[in-house]
Amino acid sequence: xxxxxxxxxxxxxxxxxxxxxxxxxxxxxxxxxxxxxxxxxxxxxxxxxxxxxxxxxxxxxxxxxxxxxxxxxxxxxxxxxxxxxxxxxxxxxxxxxxxxxxxxxxxxxxxxxxxxxxxxxxxxxxxxxxxxxxxxxxxxxxxxxxxxxxxxxxxxxxxxxxxxxxxxxxxx
Length: 172
Known about the structure:
Blueprint: H1 2-37, H2 51-66, H3 72-83, H4 87-102, H5 112-148, H6 153-171
Helix pairs in contact: 2-3, 2-4, 3-4, 4-5, 5-6
């Protein structure tokens, strides 16, 4: 008799849990349909970083480096207002450019596209000396990622591309 009571109580709890799950799914579907019907409510994670954002962050990073600006938050806010890039992403990208130009450790995470673009800009604007400093940081980052087991083959290809460019320039 005791077992029957326990089984009935468990079945009752299961039914309640099933009803809760159904309600949660309905709420989730409602929220998803709201997001689909209201595209202006993009969240930071929905936003794709475009070329304009990448370029502006480079320009602001260069400005911060050349004018010894330590308050990158102001530039990040400005980038957000101008392009819509989330402030935290702008801060990270601007900091990465400053680090590359100063020869400091590269803490920020950059996409391969951003890294390639920034190295290209650095080479065209700061020459071989600027590219050497930036490549030393990229090399250290690749080695650190390799040690962690999270190395990107694409990042390594970009490094080799610019390292080869640098070697060819030095041969001239």
